[in-house]
Amino acid sequence: MSFIEKKKRKWGDRRDGVWVKDAPGLNVIMSGLYPNRADCEVCMRDELDITDLLAYIEAKNASGQAHKTKLFHCIVAMMVRVINERRYLNRFVRTLRIYERDEITVSFIAKRQFSDKAEEALVTYKARATDNVDDVSRFILGEVKEVRAEGQPEPETGKKKKKAKKLDDTINKAARMPRFLLMIVTGFVRWLDRWGKVPRSLTHGDPAYSTVLLSNLGSIRCPAVYHHLNNYGTNSLMMTIGTMKKKQVTGADGTTTTRDVVDIAVTADERIADGFYFAKSIKMLHYLCAHPDILEKTFDEDVALQEETEK
Prior knowledge:
about 35% helix; six-stranded mixed sheet; single chain; alpha+beta; about 300 residues; Chloramphenicol Acetyltransferase; 9 helices
């Protein structure tokens, strides 16, 4: 399947999505009966066998490349490829209509420091047709490095760097407004959000408007947990990634082997697809973990994931 392309907007479309006019009637009716995304959550838990994936990462990093590929980078790349193949995952519901994005964005949160009081920064990766896992790695490593540099004080003044300080100041000033005024402002923003009119300056880089929000809890030695969806924004897919562990697996011939696994928890808006569609999408993640060489291919290269997972 070719990589998702930008579509010309027509009447009824939004800036951030194209109106799916042939969406199943049941899904449309559900969006009227259950208008809040948080009321339509379905949570799926699973365990990915990453033994082959870890071997691939180890060999890749031993090849002398300039950057280090990590498990999280691979999962981001796998999610992009699955979403490109399974386009219903890139949908969202607003005002009794189902829309589909014509871009794939993956968001996650990076801590500026590993401490209780350290601030968090939002990072959003927008996939390009010619990207592969190496491009994902370079982007994430570069963004996280910049985020953590912003959180460090400047040697001369001891103050935060200007970019981070400006954003923090804006948020803190808004939070200190009188309650009645804050209610008016946030209420107006929610109204704009409902009709797809929130300014780009507010939606750009906001994970609430991304295709999928990932939370790498394994990096802080935490298991995968259920994470709710938000009514604000358009994000319909959330996945948490837990810690890696060893597991004894018994094969069909009765032999037992030790495998590396990681637990995941996925929360999705059930109005964008049915359970069978979600289950098959997760099956694709399993296939990619077992065939990590696919990650070397660019996203616009066809690897027949649909056919392989149906075998």
